[in-house]
């Protein structure tokens, strides 16, 4: 089972609200258990490059089932570098995404990009609170 579109959209709305409160413009991506995009939103004024980065952070988070910040610590590891190459840039092991779980079951991940990595993660965590 993967995250439902209705849940993903609610999380995106919560992330946008948090970003506005922080005075930030970001891109938010929600991916399913396979890492496929469920929904994405680019706030007005958010950097275009953040489209690929937010999805890549979410993809990395769901692939390993951990917050992408934990993967950032190992980004120079040969296995992480191989994943980045194998996924042709779609795997972004940088802080700003968190897995979405219901109990012990992994359903997807939410990734944010456009602010600092720490701010991206704060926004993602705020969205996760609505799930």
What does this entry look like structurally?
Strands 2-1-4-3 form a four-stranded antiparallel β-sheet. Helices cover 44% and strands 21% of the residues. α1 crosses α5 (117-128). It starts with a helix and ends with a helix. It has helices at 5-21, 50-64, 68-72, 78-86, 117-128; strands at residues 27-32, 37-42, 97-102, 105-113. It has five helices and four strands; from the N terminus they run αββαααββα. The model has no long low-confidence stretch (mean pLDDT 93). It is an alpha+beta fold and 131 residues long. A hairpin with a 2-residue loop joins β3 and β4 (105-113). The chain has one domain (5-128): Haem-degrading domain (Beta-Lactamase).
List keywords for this structure.
single chain, 131 residues, alpha+beta, Beta-Lactamase, four-stranded antiparallel β-sheet, 44% helix
Helical residue percent? 40-55%
- CATH architectural grouping: 2-Layer Sandwich
Mean pLDDT: 93
Strand content: 15-25%
Order of helices and strands: HEEHHHEEH
Structural class: alpha+beta
CATH-defined superfamily? Haem-degrading domain
User: Helical element count?
Assistant: 5
* Biggest sheet statistics: 4 strands, antiparallel
What is the domain tally? Answer: 1
CATH class: Alpha Beta
Question: What name does the CATH topology carry?
Answer: Beta-Lactamase
